[in-house]
Amino acid sequence: MSKTMALRVFGLNLVKTNRSLLQNACKATALPAGQTVAEASYATEVTVHASPAAIQKQKVSKAMKAYLKRATEHDEFMKTQHLEFQIGKRHLANMMGADAETFTQEDIDEAISYLFPSGLYDPKARPAMKTPEEVFPARKAAEFDETGRPFHSMFYTGKPNFFQLLHEIVEETNKLYELEERMLRRGIKPDENQKLEIAGFQVLPKDQLETQLVESIADIEYTNFSNSMDRLIASPYAYKSKAFIERYLKPLMDQSKQLEVPKPKIDEQGRQYITTYECLRKTARADVTVRMPGTGKISINGQDVSYFEDENSREQLLFPLNYSELLGKVDVEANVEGGGPSGQSGAIRWGIAMCLRSFVDQEMIESMRLAGLLTRDYRRRERKKFGQEGARRKYTWKKR
Amino acid sequence: MRIPGALYAARGRAPQSEKDVPFQEILPLRLKNTVSGKADSGSDVACLQEMGMLFACMKDNEFVEKYCHKEIQQFQNCFKCYMDRKFEAKKTVNQGVVQPGNNLNYKQLNKYMRRFPNPV
Amino acid sequence: MAVFYRIAIQSSIYGCRSMSMFPKHFGDPLRKKDMEDLNKSELTKFYHIPIKAALNNHSDTVFSDEIKLKMMNYITKNGNKALARGLLSRTFEIIKRAQTERLHLSPTDKQNVNTNAEKLLIEAVENSRPLLQLTSIKRGGVNYQVPVPITKKRSYFLAMKWLLDAAFEKDKKVCLPERLAWEILDAAHGQGRVIKKKDDVHKQCESNRAYAHYRWS
């Protein structure tokens, strides 16, 4: 009887958090389960087989009751939140004169920043509207059955998923060690061509691992994790368990962005040109046009290089041109506003460098990237903190 | 090793009788599973010999550096090695990361002994 | 009614980033010279690492130099770097003039006269770098002056500081670039106040060599 009740409760809300229970229930009563298996398999991996009759007779344990209560409450809460979110979205769409059905999250962000302009420094402190799933972190599904018996053998560690992961890593490592032993005895060396390339990757950072495991991890536990991952990766046969390792690696850089180089257009004089809009540095904003066969003419807001009074800023303008050895071969036009000379010259420097990508070969682009010319310098003035003289500097200590 | 009482008798001193003075275990007769870090701070004085050689050479040549090129090189290399080692130690040894070898830091020793404690 | 949440935006790729600096895994920008020194396999290591933006006082020309940049920073007062840059270039001009004059006056050994002002600055700094330093250490109520080896970075700092101190210590009529130029020229030729100061430090260290084992740092 209790099971049917539980089923009813969960049948109402197909929410991620209690997917596993639902699955279990479905299995027990042989109902078709319509949802996909979760990508993070931890919460859903454990399945309960049809419990023996003896257990079925027993009462539902207190823990389970409490969990069910919590789960229903949470479901109700999420439902209302969803509803409110939908209503809010519709209102926003109305206000912006758009169709509510096709109003995406990006549109919402745009609308919010337009309707509620905020002068707050920290982006986290500015108003935002996100789906309830993003705002309220995912919760674990029930980790025990109706009698209160935990599914996982490491339930009482408090962090079963994390310790399970550690066990898995060690298992993999031991497997690789055994393989190495066997291969050594046979006199076979590991394949150099298949060697695992992890130069562009890093072990999953702590916060991401936490969200993946749905458990909070202490710092020392994270060090244990990263150390054991390092040990696994350092094994010469690491490529054998590539799939496992890659689940806990994260690329350092998005490579695809580097390869997109815009094609230059042709202007009325038959010259190639390319324009970069939105060149930002500090509070300066510029758009830069570079024309290919040129004589090295530079015009900034209609003036020449003397627009900048100090030498340093002028030097900055010439940096990318000089670096790519195109100084005197291209013309540069820039419109710049906001900020001071240093910010403006930085913005134009970045714009020129981005434009020049279209006129140089791949090797030079990579070289320019390594020289730090293609990185957008998004550093801003750090705010002053209260109780301090500036951003970092503290007041002189006075005893009294 | 037990020493026969007769040996003491020959030197004119009777051994203590266990009945009169029963043995008391004031402290457990077992080594602790930790070592203190007091003595392990080590000497921070490095490159004394190189410095001495440098001074001798400098004094001989009236503090003209170009005549003591070799000594200066040795001294600077020594100091650089020392600083590098210190920097490395900060990352590994002082954190207590156990590595193979016989020259262990007290933190490493403690970690090691916690893993393999004395049998009770 | 719309609902607004104050949420911690989970950053997509780089974790939490502070707006005033680059994340930790960003590499420092390389100079063209460094890139030529590295071989292919070492360069591919950088292929996957994002690079910090080049600083706004960097420029990869033949004139850019680490010591020159540092010197400029040390001359700077109250953040007026443009003025410092002007002063330094004026110094270089004076050096160049003086050396050119010397070149024309001595027709015999033209090879020995260096007219490259930047090279002269580097030479001067290298010449006035100390090897050791005295620090006072308290042992049993007595302060001992103990000679200690110094790091490369600090030795460069001291050399440049001494050069500047000597230049700032001047009568009001003479401008800084002129005085600095003469100090640099003197130090580059292994004479003058700065070199003497360095030798003094070395001599003091030598006389206090008995205390060398008191060092604890």
TrEMBL record, chain A:
Chief location category: mitochondrion
Any one Gene Ontology cellular component term annotated for this protein: mitochondrial small ribosomal subunit
Pfam families, alphabetized: Ribosomal_S9
Gene3D superfamilies in the cross-refs: 3.30.230.10
Compartments it resides in: Mitochondrion
Keywords from the named record: Mitochondrion, Ribonucleoprotein, Ribosomal protein, Transit peptide
Molecular function per GO: RNA binding; structural constituent of ribosome
Keyword Ribosomal protein attributed: yes
An annotated GO BP: translation
Coiled coil location: none
Family: Belongs to the universal ribosomal protein uS9 family.
PANTHER family: RIBOSOMAL PROTEIN S9 (PTHR21569), SMALL RIBOSOMAL SUBUNIT PROTEIN US9M (PTHR21569:SF1)
Protein's UniProt name: Small ribosomal subunit protein uS9m
Organism: Drosophila pseudoobscura pseudoobscura
Automatic annotation (TrEMBL), chain B:
GO BP terms: mitochondrial translation
Keywords associated with the record: Disulfide bond
GO molecular function: RNA binding
Domain CHCH: 47-80
Cellular component per GO, a single term: nucleoplasm
Keyword Disulfide bond: yes
Top-level taxon of origin: Eukaryota
Pfam families per UniProt: CHCH
Protein's UniProt name: Coiled-coil-helix-coiled-coil-helix domain-containing protein 1
Phylogenetic classification of the source organism: Eukaryota, Metazoa, Ecdysozoa, Arthropoda, Hexapoda
Gene: LOC4804705
From TrEMBL, chain C:
Residues covered by the Small ribosomal subunit protein uS7 domain: 58-209
Taxonomic superkingdom: Eukaryota
CDD domains assigned to the protein according to its UniProt record, in alphabetical order: uS7_Mitochondria_Mammalian
One Gene Ontology term from the biological process aspect of the record: translation
Keyword Glycoprotein set for record: no
Ligase among keywords: no
Pfam families assigned to the protein according to its UniProt record, in alphabetical order: Ribosomal_S7
Alphabetic keyword roster: Ribonucleoprotein, Ribosomal protein
GO cellular component: ribonucleoprotein complex; ribosome
Matching InterPro entries: Ribosomal_uS7 (IPR000235), Ribosomal_uS7_dom (IPR023798), Ribosomal_uS7_dom_sf (IPR036823)
Family in the record: Belongs to the universal ribosomal protein uS7 family.
Protein name: 28S ribosomal protein S7, mitochondrial
Native source species: Drosophila pseudoobscura pseudoobscura (Fruit fly)
Lineage, highest ranks first: Eukaryota, Metazoa, Ecdysozoa, Arthropoda, Hexapoda
